[in-house]
Design a protein that fits this description.
CATH class of the largest domain: Mainly Beta
Radius of gyration: 24 Å
Oligomer: single chain
CATH superfamily of the largest domain: Copper binding periplasmic protein CusF
Largest sheet: 5 strands, antiparallel
Number of domains: 2
Shape: elongated
Structural class: alpha+beta
Strand order of the largest sheet: 5-4-3-6-7
Number of helices: 1
Number of strands: 7
Helix content: 10-25%
CATH architecture of the largest domain: Beta Barrel
Order of helices and strands: EEHEEEEE
CATH topology of the largest domain: OB fold (Dihydrolipoamide Acetyltransferase, E2P)
Length: about 140
């Protein structure tokens, strides 16, 4: 491969005249990841397909023992999307999962009735960790 010579009083070097695929691929891969990520994050309709991986959240509050794969909690519903099978909930701390109080989107398993739940409802719910490392609501009911 032809080389370009650079001679300067401070240094002297030889560079290939064309970059090789090995030098271009890592940068191209990074560029692709960075250009796609904002589009996914900005598209609220895609949250059903790109649901957050909750596996790292079990240690969210620090190292306080082994986190469960299931837990019950209470919270306030902010929004319900039955077509996507997702609720946005602000829940109380869930010590069994080492989760602090937070607001988050949580998907529901098939069969959970979201038609009876609406924004503003106080609810009790149960979540279970799926094989895909995503917690899903398996039971939900309004509180009196």
């Amino acid at each position: 491969m032809p080389q370009i010579s650079v001679d300067h009083t401070a240094f002297s070097a030889r560079f290939p005249s064309r970059p090789s695929a090995a030098t271009l691929l890592p940068g191209l891969a990074l560029l692709m990841v960075l250009s796609v990520s904002p589009a996914i994050a900005a598209d609220p309709a895609s949250h059903g397909e790109a649901m957050m991986d909750h596996s790292s959240m079990s240690d969210h509050a620090g190292m306080h023992g082994q986190a469960s794969m299931a837990a019950s909690g209470q919270g306030l519903i902010n929004s319900v999307d039955p077509s996507q099978g997702v609720v946005n909930i602000t829940h109380e701390p869930m010590p069994a999962l080492n989760w602090p109080e937070m607001t988050m989107d949580l998907p529901v398993v098939e069969g959970v009735d979201l038609e009876s739940i609406q924004a503003g409802d106080a609810v009790r719910f149960r979540v279970e960790l799926g094989a895909d490392q995503v917690y899903r609501i398996t039971e939900i009911e309004t509180m009196p």
